[in-house]
């Protein structure tokens, strides 16, 4: 009887492991190959060789780019180099990326920038908020942008017990923002277990100096986050569920679900076209190739555009796709007046004219 029980439990355990492995392969599109879709004019951006994970473009056409992210489980081509913030001026005929100097009381050696978001105050001062992972922890860094000095001045570090495992951020006030927590756990092995079991404990946090709270939950992997042009809706990517969640924003900063848009690809960061309100999404067509990186068969890149977001049937179109021969592991697509920047976790960045 005892042996039978042991065999039964062993069989059940193996069956569960097998089912979970199959589920992971499905959630990561492990067998998917991408077909090439190339805009008419694209070229790699000189100087961005080790990642361009997030990009935020100001109304003036200046683009901030976070670079050299070290993220658990992902490759890094410069593991010993600190992260940087680059700037590009899209008004130039041939814009180039230049690293910004960082001043103030800030540990630049441990800088590990992830998601970024800008805020312009009433006096037109530009502030850059950066999700940072010093020593694999999570903080939010607030910088003041000094355009003439081509620099960032560090103003403060924001920490809170709810601001852990942060991924992306969208700033909507002088010190009010939403941020995504892509995993509940912070221990790498517990994170793996969380992903294998698909616990859906990932969530969205609201922060202000007076109040910090969870405002949306139930995500498999809450990732990119942005806001609609009218500031009434928050868009959040759920990477391994391959969805975009549309959430209504309330005066007390709470969020309520409106709809879910399924993309069929692992969606990362989200940006809104300032001219049309369309969502541009940087995506991973095959997530398994990210998890098991092979330079001979690298992860591809994909950019989707979602039009008529609030309609019954939003229009989803592929604006860029590559099998990894040009661009590996795309995370973000940011557009300004038909100029498109595509960033990656650890690889290069692309500049396209649409």
TrEMBL record:
<comment type="function">
    <text>Capable of hydrolyzing lactones and a number of aromatic carboxylic acid esters.</text>
</comment>
<keyword id="KW-0732">Signal</keyword>
<feature type="binding site">
    <location>
        <position position="168"/>
    </location>
    <ligand>
        <name>Ca(2+) 1</name>
    </ligand>
</feature>
<dbReference type="GO" id="GO:0102007">
    <property type="term" value="F:acyl-L-homoserine-lactone lactonohydrolase activity"/>
</dbReference>
<feature type="binding site">
    <location>
        <position position="223"/>
    </location>
    <ligand>
        <name>Ca(2+) 1</name>
    </ligand>
</feature>
<keyword id="KW-0479">Metal-binding</keyword>
<dbReference type="GO" id="GO:0046872">
    <property type="term" value="F:metal ion binding"/>
</dbReference>
<dbReference type="InterPro" id="IPR051288">
    <property type="entry name" value="Serum_paraoxonase/arylesterase"/>
</dbReference>
<feature type="binding site">
    <location>
        <position position="268"/>
    </location>
    <ligand>
        <name>Ca(2+) 1</name>
    </ligand>
</feature>
<keyword id="KW-0106">Calcium</keyword>
<feature type="active site" description="Proton acceptor">
    <location>
        <position position="114"/>
    </location>
</feature>
<comment type="subunit">
    <text>Homotrimer.</text>
</comment>
<dbReference type="InterPro" id="IPR002640">
    <property type="entry name" value="Arylesterase"/>
</dbReference>
<keyword id="KW-1015">Disulfide bond</keyword>
<feature type="binding site">
    <location>
        <position position="269"/>
    </location>
    <ligand>
        <name>Ca(2+) 1</name>
    </ligand>
</feature>
<keyword id="KW-0378">Hydrolase</keyword>
<feature type="binding site">
    <location>
        <position position="53"/>
    </location>
    <ligand>
        <name>Ca(2+) 1</name>
    </ligand>
</feature>
<feature type="binding site">
    <location>
        <position position="167"/>
    </location>
    <ligand>
        <name>Ca(2+) 1</name>
    </ligand>
</feature>
<feature type="disulfide bond" description="In form B">
    <location>
        <begin position="42"/>
        <end position="352"/>
    </location>
</feature>
<feature type="glycosylation site" description="N-linked (GlcNAc...) asparagine">
    <location>
        <position position="323"/>
    </location>
</feature>
<comment type="similarity">
    <text>Belongs to the paraoxonase family.</text>
</comment>
<feature type="signal peptide">
    <location>
        <begin position="1"/>
        <end position="15"/>
    </location>
</feature>
<dbReference type="GO" id="GO:0004064">
    <property type="term" value="F:arylesterase activity"/>
</dbReference>
<feature type="binding site">
    <location>
        <position position="116"/>
    </location>
    <ligand>
        <name>Ca(2+) 1</name>
    </ligand>
</feature>
<dbReference type="Pfam" id="PF01731">
    <property type="entry name" value="Arylesterase"/>
</dbReference>
<protein>
    <recommendedName>
        <fullName>Paraoxonase</fullName>
        <ecNumber>3.1.1.2</ecNumber>
    </recommendedName>
</protein>
<dbReference type="InterPro" id="IPR011042">
    <property type="entry name" value="6-blade_b-propeller_TolB-like"/>
</dbReference>
<dbReference type="GO" id="GO:0005615">
    <property type="term" value="C:extracellular space"/>
</dbReference>
<dbReference type="InterPro" id="IPR008364">
    <property type="entry name" value="Paraoxonase2"/>
</dbReference>
<keyword id="KW-0325">Glycoprotein</keyword>
<dbReference type="GO" id="GO:0009636">
    <property type="term" value="P:response to toxic substance"/>
</dbReference>
<feature type="binding site">
    <location>
        <position position="54"/>
    </location>
    <ligand>
        <name>Ca(2+) 2</name>
    </ligand>
</feature>
